[in-house]
């Protein structure tokens, strides 16, 4: 395909007369187009060709809309039948109403449905998310890569929900619920009323939905089971999950995988040796104290102990760099092998990481 494409270009641009100036212009044009063609075809091969043969048909079911329609229909039996697989997860894990088979369940549910704030939230969700076509396309492609790397895994059913500002994404066996009320935009007045920190609101935007689904899926399906629960193991585990996200969503940037702005990612790249040096100097690398670990892992306005223009979660970013080095040096390791690997000290040694 690429060869044919290049022959066509050369045929179109071949000079009609032999002239030194014409030949120079001709060669310049050919060189520029060759570069463009190679980049175009290599990117296409990287991002789509390996999964083009895999069939995944993903639809995000609008549980959120159908739930609030119950105010009018009160046809709970039909609703319960349609969402038999997802309703228990939503009821137990998201809004805490308990067993949907309880004879008084509809009474409890009506309190949620008739809450004035929840109705305002449902109205705002409908405005911000009139449809979920882009997220469906992103997730469908991501789950094609899931089947490519993990053929034995099932593609989960995905549902949109309103959680009352609880979990952003809930994951159970072959089920995922996305709380759209957690992605209404950083300027959403509800987040101000809830006193949600500004740094957290930056990622409470519609553009984060599909990536947060894959991130939550990775964290749930590949839990943290280290040999030693120290800082470096946490860093590499969290880096491993971001590496997983990048492999399932190769069209996304490293900044997006990290939930960073480009400026935050640039800060990390420009100060990589200083971040690593600080952790070593503080003798935190093998520290097992929870309060020390979360300094480098948890979200926040910046990483405690580092300059205030640093982003939070710099420990995760360093973990991602270690994983990338490890995978580069261990070509025999598949993504599946990596996700099964819980010897984080071995990954560190084998990576020979040195910023």
TrEMBL record:
Kindly name one Pfam family recorded for this protein.
Answer: GldB_lipo
Which keywords belong to this entry? Answer: Lipoprotein
Note the InterPro entries from the entry.
GldB-like
Q: Superkingdom of the source?
A: Bacteria
* Record protein name field: Gliding motility lipoprotein GldB
Q: State the species of origin.
A: Marinifilum caeruleilacunae
What high-level taxonomic lineage is stated for the organism?
Bacteria, Pseudomonadati, Bacteroidota, Bacteroidia, Marinilabiliales
This protein's encoding gene:
gldB
